[in-house]
């Protein structure tokens, strides 16, 4: 009986260690996946912001060109008129 109990205790301890190892691996895997997802979200947000900034720059350059052209012709009209 005592031998059987020792064997079952040893088996329980071994299973516990095995489950502990599996749990550590699972946690580490989840942590890595979460870090990858976080990096992807950060990258996507940066891409979106960069695209928005680019188009705002393009629009401001076009608006500046239009305003300067209109002011130039307006001034020319006043000078010659």
Secondary structure: elements and pairs:
Blueprint (H helix, E strand, L loop, with lengths): L1 H79 L1
The string of secondary-structure elements, in order, is H
The number of helical segments is 1
Number-wise, the strands total: 0
Helix/strand/pairing class, anyone?
mainly alpha
Distance N to C terminus: 118 Å
Percent range of helical residues: over 70%
Strand content: under 5%
Protein architecture, described:
By secondary structure, the chain is mainly α. The chain contains 1 helix and no strands. The longest helix is centred in the middle third of the chain and has 79 residues. It starts with a helix and ends with a helix.
Give a quick rundown of the structure.
By secondary structure, the protein is mainly alpha-helical. 98% of the residues lie in helices and 0% in strands. The N and C termini lie far apart (118 Å).
Keywords:
81 residues, single chain
């Amino acid at each position: 009986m005592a031998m059987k109990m020792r064997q079952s205790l040893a088996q329980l301890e071994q299973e516990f260690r095995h489950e502990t190892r599996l749990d550590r691996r699972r946690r580490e895997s989840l942590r890595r996946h979460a870090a990858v997802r976080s990096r992807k979200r950060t990258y996507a947000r940066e891409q979106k912001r960069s695209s928005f900034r680019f188009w705002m720059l393009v629009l401001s350059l076009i608006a500046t060109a239009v305003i300067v052209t209109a002011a130039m012709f307006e001034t020319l009209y006043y000078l010659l008129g």
